[in-house]
Amino acid sequence: MIKAKNRMGLIFFPAYDWAISPTHPEREERLLYTQDQLREEGIFDIDGLVEYKPDIATEEDVMRLHFCFPDVASVTTESHMISAGGAIKAARIVMEGQVDRAFALVRPPGHHAMKSVHGNRGFCNINNEAIMIEYIRDTYGVKKVAVVDTDCHHGDGSQDIYWNDPNVLYISIHQDGRTLYPGSGHVDELGGPNAAGKTINIPLPPETSDEGILYAIDEMVLPILKDFKPELIVNSAGQDNHYTDPITNMNFSAQGYARLNEKLSPDIAVLEGGYSIQGALPYVNLGIILAMAGVDYSHVREPDYNAASLRQDPRIMDYIKKLKNVVLDAYKDPPRYEGLPPYGEFMTRKKNIFYDTDGIRESQVESILRCRECSGLFSLETHSTVCSLSLGIEIPLGACPACRKEGVKLLNGAKKSGKYETIQVIDRVKKEYYRA
Amino acid sequence: MAKSDLFLGLDVGGTHTDAVLINDKGIVAHYKAVTDHDNLLLSVRSAIEKVSGEAERKNIRRINLSTTLSTNAIVENKLEDVCVIISSGPGIDPEQFRIGKYYYAVSGSIDHRGKEVRGVDAAAISRIVAEAASKKVRTFAAVTKFSTRNPDQENVIAGEAAEKSDFITLGHKLSGQLGFPRRVVTAYFNSAVWRIYNGFADAIDACLKELGISAEVNVLKADGGTMPFSLSRGVPVETILSGPAASVMGIAALCDITQDCIVLDIGGTTTDIAIFAGGVPLIEKDGISLQDYPTLVRSLRTRSIGVGGDSVIRASAKGVTVGPDRKGPAMAAGGKEPALVDALNARGIISYMDVKKSRDGIAALAKKKNMTPQKLADAAIDTAVAAIRADVDAMLEDINNRPVYTIHEMLEGAKLAPKKLYVMGGPAGAFKEKLTEAFGVPVVLPKNFEVANAIGAALARTTIDIELFADTGRGELLIPNIGVRQKVPSTYTLKEAERDVRAHLAAHLKGLGLSVSEADTEIIESSSFNMVNDFYSAGKDIRVKCQIKPGVIKRLL
Asked: What kind and span of H or E run contains B316?
């Protein structure tokens, strides 16, 4: 019997009865062939590897960080709550010491879901990793968390959620936004004024292969993690950098994914995208699971793997080497946001969001109170093609008394004004999340 | 059954051999003896002779036998050398699954769809077969990854080995279930016990003939069902670890079980736990493990804990413990250290052999720990009951928390809630009151539970499970373990697959001379996925699992 070096928990939830639409990439059998491969390989008989049933996330778990308009039930299905619950389960078994590491192999994905949710964008409604991380921070008192997002698409939802949070480092490695959905994730997107340098983007050129991606891990991600010293590393484990993925243009392999995971050594991995469901996912997932469990994965290979045809253009490597300096400099010396409103005043930014899956257009005005004591009172005014003007107010984790007081004032004023259809409140200090 | 018909159940267990003769009214005779470990045939023969008279033997219609022969051969490593030839393709290094002295991995690969990615190297196989032959290895096992989706490569290996082998196990014939490492182990064990099992089977056949018995003969499997004796000659591995299943099926025959319940078999060394859901014993999800080797052999879901009548009692600062080991027999039976039975004796709950010795033993231990004998004995009994309760709870929790893969099951999945506890085994009666208290459900001691194992063997019905896999894009349907492979049209549906799988199962059993109607078959899993290649529909992936579930042909109430 094979013995795992690391006690490993696997939360496998393929949602065989849920799809966005019949031929959509996010459909019923997405993880069917992965399950076949895992069963045939005898993964579940590895000593030290245990399969767990997901939890079901509660509305409170979602409302702890998202502003859902008009409410949670309107923008989610049971499937989303189970997928997020799968991530929560992964966190629980790791934090409670039942396993050393856990992989939530769940669908649908979540990393395109932003702070404000009006519907589905990029196949995502609610952000599984963020829901999990906030559950962890509330339940176990963990402070510093790093998210390394290795999905081929920029995790603009996760970036949006943690934009102002100095205690969550968000690093995304992805295909350059100039060539792929959602178009964001450029090197100069580095976090808000209270969290500058705590968002890091590593956009890689199309056709980057194992060599380039692993270089980015070794030379950029690992040094930054070493400096940040997170208590917990979470991997948003998208599998669409694979050379067979139908909707992206990268050349990563199953071996590459396994090695990436071994180098990164995340405490928790959560599946994101990956739509080459026959040619990639069975092998990529096998590689990731073996690497996380500390079992030899050297024989894991795609049936059609051909090293020669995936060899990287030398110009790509030159580009990535130059990118290294830019990224590391940006982390060490992030923008200072000079010329901003003074402390004690609100700073605002406007955003227009397009929900590609649901065809919704949203306009947001985001305000953050510049604060020396905490990450600052946050509010978000939003309206969209499906929702009239609404407001979200967040008193952040560890908010100072002034920001808490200001939050109450803001809420009372908003209620009195009568101009908002819905007001969502997140009070992380009192742990109260409600629709006012 | 006709009035004069007799059924004979035989359980040749590790310690005892039990036999029971049953007619249409109930038990006619039963017999128990110590098993002659080195001559199981003799144990079988004398059990038949003692339990039935010459006149009765002519009326025996059915003999069901549960035997430890294959289990013992594996546990005691009395195994024949087997040449194991595998092809694994990419995945976990096949070296990790090396088993036996002659294990060869050849090139060749089949993917999860059953598509051959790389052909198997026939020349290399031929060389391996020749090498094995030169070492006088005459039994083979052929296992390839995903052979349940495409058995071609196993068949090629079989073809190459045909002339130089007495027997070859093909992985896909063992089970339709995925699990390459389990397939390797199961195929290896099957070939390794094949000769010794067939020798035994020949001897049994000869013995029955001598005794003038011309009955249908079946063997018991670990899943609580039987298979025809003749068929078991090709899959002797299916006969491993059938003992606990015999007892569980005995309870099913002795009691009218219709709901969720727990079955406990309290023995000298251990307590075995089984669970019934809606009156049917639960099956282990993947297959039973033997000596730390997970196999594909289907079995009842049972769990064993180190609490039995002879479990030793210890007292320390932390409290009183019972088991998990035993130090010889209880003091009442001449042992040196107090055991659970002694505690029951000391409290006057039972009166087993030398009660005084029990009392003295308990008193001596109590004195050392500054306790009253009564308190020590009570603590021991309570600890034992609490340990059983905790293990049952853990087992129920495992079952109720088993992973599921659809939203429907996540939200609507039924939870087990046992309504009754059935207890058998030597000290069972002594625990009735305590167990009732601990579990809060009625506790039943079935009559005749001393021979439940032999009764279970006698009355268990045939079980089998098959898995249909159809790919309408490729236009093929497979039921690997019963050798069905046929074309299907692109319009083939799940409904047709469900109909066909039942029909194939019934036809297969009819071919074995078993009268089973399609109504006895049960679909346990059924799914159909639309396959999509690059946004275009590429046919359906249809999977249907069908079984005849464990049950008894007759109840003795």
From this structure: strand B311-316
Contact A8, A292 (CB under 8 A): yes
Of the candidates B91, B405, B408, which has its C-beta nearest A286's C-beta? B91
Q: Report in angstroms the alpha-carbon separations of A90 from A14, A272, B163, B445.
A: 15, 15, 53, 43
Q: Is A97 left (phi over 0), alpha (psi -120 to 50) or beta?
A: left
Whether the CB of B117 is below 8 Å from some CB of chain A: the reply is yes
Please report where in the chains the tokens 């027999």 appear, as a residue.
B329
Tens of pLDDT, residues B59-75? 999 999 999 999 999 99
Quote the minimal CA–CA distance from A53 to chain B in Å.
4
Instruction: Give the position of tokens 């939890």.
Output: A55
CA dist B352 and A4 (Å) reads 48
Is A433:A392 a contact under the CB 8 Å cutoff?
A: no
**Residue A286: its chain B contacts at CB < 8 A?**
91-92
Say if pTM beats, i.e. exceeds, 0.80: yes
Task: Find the CB nearest A13 among B96, B405, B411.
Answer: B405
**Strand-pair partners of B470:** B477, B542
> How confident is the model over A93-142, as pLDDT tens digits?
999 999 999 999 999 999 999 999 999 999 999 999 999 999 999 999 99
pLDDT tens sequence across B382-413: 999 999 999 999 999 999 999 999 888 888 88
Name the amino acid, one letter, at A172. Answer: S
To probe the interface with A, which of B398, B407, B467, B541 has the most A CB atoms within 10 Å? B407
B-chain residues near A54 (CB < 8 A): 410
Contact B181 A303 (CB under 8 A): no
CA-CA-CA-CA torsion sign (A340, A341, A342, A345): negative
Facing B178 at nearest CB: one of A39, A52, A246:
A39
CA angle A187, A193, A196 (to 5 degrees): 40
Radius of gyration, CA atoms only, chain A? 21
Measured distance CA(B226)–CA(A120) in Å, rounded:
53
A112 is annotated as an active-site residue: yes
Burial class, B517, CB count within 10 angstroms (exposed 0-12 / middle 13-18 / buried 19+): exposed
Is the peptide bond prior to A246 cis by the omega test (within 30 degrees of 0)?
no
Return the pLDDT at A21: 85
Shortest distance, CA B460 to any CA of chain A (angstroms): 30
Helix (H), strand (E) at residue A354: strand A346-355
**Does the CB of B415 have a partner CB in chain A at under 8 Å?**
no
Question: Of A117, A124, A128, A112, which is closest to residue A54 (Cα–Cα)?
Answer: A128
Write down the catalytic residue from A80, A112, A174, A383. A112
Closest to A403 in 3D by CA, of A425, A365, A373, A434 = A373
Give the span between the Cα atoms of B482 and B234, in whole angstroms: 13
Strands A423-427 and A432-435, sheet pairing: antiparallel
What whole-number percentage of chain B has pLDDT above 90?
A: 83
Query: Could you give the residue ranges of the DSSP H alpha helices within B135-225?
Result: 152-161, 180-210
Structure tokens at B530: 């639309």
Cis bond upstream, residue B151 (ω within 30): no
Q: How far is A32 from chain B (nearest CA, A)?
A: 9
What ipTM is given for this predicted complex?
0.93
Q: Which residues of A122-148 are buried (b: 16+ CB within 10 A; e: fewer)?
A: bbbbbbbbbbbbbbbbbeeebeebbbb
User: In whole angstroms, what separates CA A339 from the centre of its chain?
Assistant: 31
Largest CA distance in chain B: 82
